[in-house]
Amino acid sequence: MEKIFKDCYIKYENETFIIGNSKIERIIKINDNKPVSVSLRTNEEKWEGGNVALFNVTAFDYSNSSVLFDAYISNFGGKSEEALIGEFIFKSNLTQIKLIMFIFPDIGAVSSKLYVKGKVIPLEENRNMSNTAIELSKKETVSEVVLPEYGVIDSLNMDDKHIKAKAVRLYDETDIYNDLVSFDERLLYRKFDEYFKGSFLILDNYIDKKSVMLVSEGYVSGKKFFGNKDFSVNSDVACVFGNGIKEDSKGYTYIGGATVVTGKTDELSLEYKNFYSAMYKRDNVYIMSNTWGDRKRDTSVCEEFIIKEIDIAGTLGVDVVQIDDGWQKGITENSGFTAHGAWGNFYDTDDDFWEVNLDKFPDGFSVISDYAKKKNVKLGMWFSMDKENNYALWKRDADKILELYEKYGVSYFKIDGLRINNHTCEQNILNFSMYIDEKSKGNVNFNFDITANRRYGYFMAKQYSTLFVENRYTDWQNYYPHCTLRNLWSLSEYIPAHKLQFEVLNQLRNDEKYCGDTLRPASYPIDYIFASVMVANPLIWMEMSGLQKKQIDLLKNIISIYKKEREHFKDAKIFPIGNRPDGISYTGFHIDKNNYGYLILLKEQSDENSFSYSLNKNITDIKILTSNCSDTVLEPKDNKLTVKNMCKAGYIFLKYNFK
Fold first, then answer.
1. In contact, 199 and 215? CB cutoff 8 Å
2. How far is 245 from 243, CA to CA, in rounded Å?
3. pTM for the full model?
4. E strands of 61-171, at which residues?
5. How far is the C-alpha of 357 from the C-alpha of 367, rounded, in Å?
6. Which of 72, 76, 104, 648 is most deeply packed, by most CB within 10 A?
């Protein structure tokens, strides 16, 4: 069989599977019904060798099994770019394994997803790598295919002696974690397996000048259903571990995915972001407001208050006003009115829990809907799925969201309170997302909260939602602009910025609680704070009606300029520049469109008078679009931009050409 789509191709014959495009090619050999990664190639690089099977996830009887194969083109329910897909079904008496491998045109990445149906391996049959032929020397290696350690969903056979390994670990559950990216770098010791925590593993053969990135497309470290391993590697094979599964499965259960990326070491993350953006095909970026950031919770929510918020949103240029917890008839445990609200068992508490609260909106929600349309503002709402029986009522929840969309035009929903305890929860939440997307023809947008518990996070079902990343409050003194900037800056190296929501708070609230802290929010002007997050989807995390006139004027100015340019952000290469933010650094972002681009230059509370930003090109025709620094000098030379006389808490948003 052979199938071609643009520059992508798939071939399957003589038990050899080849998937590739103009940038990458991967060859899988089916040996005794076990898939083995034979080679990974680019025009300049090659990784090959070994006899370790691709995965080991179930109690699968390979000696009494069959293999089915198909190839097709898919856009993953209409949410992604079209990809060329090869699909294997490995069937035994008790178990079926479905492996899909796919590739997008002109992107140097091959990705896989693994599903299991039927019996899974009993826990007592778990085996360790050290019990396999992986630990043997080359001369001692047996000829038959060796299964990797249990839980492995993808493996890359290789024959490389000198490897620098770098694991990049991402964190969600941001109510607990404040620094969302960490690193583990080592020179590998060839003889034994080494284990790494993280979502990315970069293997740099610095002698032969070749590198590869492995990505674990599942839950982040520490959130798997079974096992606590993410990657293992030695001189013979590198392995990616999946989400794990402990229970037998009646239908196909997703147990994880992996993406293999090739390219120059310093360009691997950019190539992966190209892949990610093809999966998460975003049609728009947006500015959203949400009043919860002022910690009045549901106590302010009413018709009069929301109309004021819509008025100010129209003045500022905010695209979406999202009403958090409090618009509905039912009362949650987060309420400011009572400590005895519901959480999770909403319909048991009140069958009409998700009806509009007529005490707060006595004229019905149509008044709010009509007013928002007049002000050219879209509406959003907060929503939490009912947890009963592993989200078994997902369709009832979905129909309520569709009703709010169809009746009132509410098109943005923050999905909060999720707790994914098992694969059934996972599948029902996915059913909820797919059903709403199909019925609304893609017009309902989600922002999934990732601040607590096990949730989809950065990689699971990535095509369905932006991510609400942080809950931070001046009331609790846990909001610092440099910490929020640090997380966006760090994540944007590996995750497309348009996937993320990051917050702008009213920085003047509760200043007295910070006791003169040098890095307190009030030490930054509000337009600087907006500039620091505008490569993401800026979240105006406050009651806008509490802003002072000067704050409104500053926000109105920078938002109007940003909105003229933001369409160029969507398909640009966005990456961090300068130093990793810590409150006293020069930092920023590069929005690269090849022939032109933008820079967001940010000076935190640094005492240094000048700084040189390293860029990937010489820039010219610099035009400052907006800035709060009047005396700054910009000197572009030799792929660098030196800035002088920039004020503290200063920003410059500029556009350039490249010749």
1. yes
2. 7
3. 0.96
4. 66-74, 83-91, 95-103, 109-118, 152-157, 164-170
5. 13
6. 104
